[in-house]
Amino acid sequence: MNNEYKPALLIIDFQEDFCPPIATKDFHPPDHVSFASNHPEPHNKPFISFVTIPNPYNPDETEISRLWPVHCVQGTPGAELIPELDISRVHMVVEKGQDARVEVYSAFGAPFRNPVVKEASTGLAQSLRNAGVTDVFVVGLAMDYCVRSTAIDAVAEGFKTYVIIEATKAVDPSEEGWGKTVKELESAGVNLVGLAGEELAKRAG
């Protein structure tokens, strides 16, 4: 029986534009498809408007995505990780969302599977496997978008996955919005745990 336990902490998008272990960064080009300003009126309202994004290699595979204000543009201060994060303890920084054609919430890559958009893949899954990681703990921003997508993809990649509920916040913090995300995570096999839980007290062997 293999009792090996090697956890990894995925810190999602602790960046200047989002804030009044392994870290990820939104790292967009200025013409990114998720920016409301890159779409014509009247359907270009940040937080309100949605857009249908096709797989660049298969227009029949699509994702509906919310439009956002311009954020985390490559080479700008807003794309930098916050100074409160001790980078000296981060083993790897994953820069996601660099392909202007697709929205990438997950630290593992774009949501498209038929075929996979290789230009949007981050290589995170293989890096974790190469490091012998067995369990993934996800924290950061935002619970209902990038944290959610990263955690669900982590399960799909074969990792036992946890979201630490005190260490994330949602774009929609309402009881309905939070509850919907919790149900989606639990249905996908993600474990929601608290800081005082026994899962965080477990030590790698």
Automatic annotation (TrEMBL):
PANTHER family noted in UniProt: LD05707P (PTHR11080:SF2), PYRAZINAMIDASE/NICOTINAMIDASE (PTHR11080)
A GO term, aspect molecular function: nicotinamidase activity
UniProt xrefs under InterPro entries: Isochorismatase-like_dom, Isochorismatase-like_sf, Isochorismatase_Nicotinamidase
Domain of life, per lineage: Eukaryota
Pfam families from the UniProt entry: Isochorismatase (PF00857)
Protein name from the UniProt record: nicotinamidase
Annotated Isochorismatase-like domain residues: 8-175
Alphabetical GO biological process terms: pyridine nucleotide biosynthetic process
Enzyme Commission no: 3.5.1.19
Assigned protein family: Belongs to the isochorismatase family.
SUPFAM superfamilies: Isochorismatase-like hydrolases (SSF52499)
Enzyme class: hydrolase
Metal-binding among keywords: yes
Pathway(s) the chain acts in: Cofactor biosynthesis; nicotinate biosynthesis; nicotinate from nicotinamide: step 1/1
Provenance organism: Lentinula detonsa
Keywords: Hydrolase, Metal-binding, Pyridine nucleotide biosynthesis
